[in-house]
C-alpha cells in the first residue's frame, strides 16, 4: 500500500481545516481551533490502488516574521497552499509559502517536485467580498509552476474532492516515475517528524 503525506498550508482563517475535513468526511465545519495541529489519516482507493493518506493540518501559522517550513519540506510528498479570496493578506502569505517551497527546489531539498504543489483560492462563495482576482491566483500559480483552482469548501464538495484527487494522482505518478525510495536514514527522520507532528492524530 502506497503512503502519501500531504501538507495543507495557509494563513489563519484561509480554510485549511475546512478543506481537509470536507474532503475526508463530506462535512463542512466553519470554525476550528486555530491553536491545534493534527494529522488526519485515511485509507482510500485511487484508480484501483490502495492509498494510506496522511494530511497534516498545522495550527495557524504566523503571517509575519521569518517563514520556516523545514519540517514540512522533509515530511510532505505534496502541498496544498490555501488562501481566502476575500482576504488579500492571506494571498500574500500564500505567495510567501510558494516562494519558500520553490526556494527549496533550488536549494538542498530536492524531494518536492513542481506538480505536487497546488494553489487553492478558497471561499468562492464570498465572491461579493472578493479582494483577490482569479487572474491574480492564476498568475501566481504560473509563476511558481504549480496548479491552481478557486472553490468553496462550504459549497463545492465535488470540486474539493476533484482537487484533492488531482494532487494525489500527481504525487503517485511521481512515485512511479522516480521509483521513490526513502533514504537510509528515513527511520530516524520519521521518528523526528512524528515527534514534531504527532501531537494529534485522527483517523477518518
Mean of all residue-level pLDDT scores: 81
Low-confidence stretches: 111-115, 184-189
User: What is the helix/strand order?
Assistant: EHEEHEHEHEHHE
Overall SS class: alpha/beta
Q: How would you characterize the overall build of this protein?
A:
The structure is a single chain. This protein is of the alpha/beta class and 204 residues long. Helix content is 39%, strand content 23%. The chain has six helices and seven strands. The protein has helices at residues 16-25, 70-75, 88-106, 134-143, 157-178, 186-197, and strands spanning 2-10, 38-46, 49-57, 78-84, 117-122, 147-150, 201-203. Strand 2 (38-46) and strand 3 form a beta hairpin.
Give descriptors for this structure.
204 residues, alpha/beta, seven-stranded mixed β-sheet, 6 helices, 7 strands, 39% helix, 23% strand, globular
Q: What can be said about this structure in brief?
A:
By secondary structure, the protein is an alpha/beta fold. Helices cover 39% and strands 23% of the residues. It is built from six helices and seven strands.
Strands, helices and their partners?
Layout: E1 2-10, H1 16-25, E2 38-46, E3 49-57, H2 70-75, E4 78-84, H3 88-106, E5 117-122, H4 134-143, E6 147-150, H5 157-178, H6 186-197, E7 201-203
Parallel strand pairs: 1-3, 1-4, 2-7, 4-5, 5-6
Antiparallel strand pairs: 2-3
Amino acid at each position: 500500500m502506497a503512503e502519501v503525506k500531504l501538507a495543507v498550508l495557509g494563513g489563519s482563517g484561509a480554510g485549511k481545516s475546512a478543506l481537509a475535513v470536507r474532503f475526508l468526511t463530506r462535512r463542512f465545519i466553519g470554525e476550528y481551533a486555530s491553536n491545534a495541529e493534527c494529522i488526519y489519516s485515511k485509507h482510500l482507493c485511487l484508480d484501483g490502488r490502495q492509498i494510506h493518506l496522511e494530511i497534516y493540518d498545522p495550527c495557524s501559522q504566523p503571517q509575519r516574521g521569518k517563514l520556516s517550513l523545514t519540517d514540512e519540506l522533509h515530511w510532505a510528498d505534496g502541498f496544498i497552499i490555501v488562501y481566502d479570496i476575500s482576504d488579500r493578506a492571506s494571498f500574500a502569505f500564500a505567495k510567501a509559502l510558494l516562494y519558500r517551497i520553490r526556494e527549496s527546489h533550488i536549494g538542498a531539498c530536492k524531494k518536492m517536485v513542481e506538480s505536487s504543489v497546488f494553489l487553492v483560492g478558497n471561499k468562492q462563495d464570498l465572491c461579493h467580498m472578493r479582494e483577490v482576482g482569479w487572474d491574480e491566483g492564476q498568475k501566481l500559480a504560473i509563476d511558481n509552476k504549480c496548479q491552481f483552482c478557486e472553490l468553496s469548501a462550504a459549497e463545492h464538495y465535488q470540486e474539493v474532492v476533484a482537487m484533492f484527487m488531482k494532487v494525489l494522482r500527481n504525487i503517485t505518478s511521481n512515485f512511479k516515475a522516480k521509483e521513490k525510495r526513502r533514504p537510509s536514514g528515513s527511520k530516524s527522520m520519521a521518528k523526528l517528524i512524528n515527534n514534531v507532528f504527532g501531537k494529534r492524530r485522527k483517523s477518518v
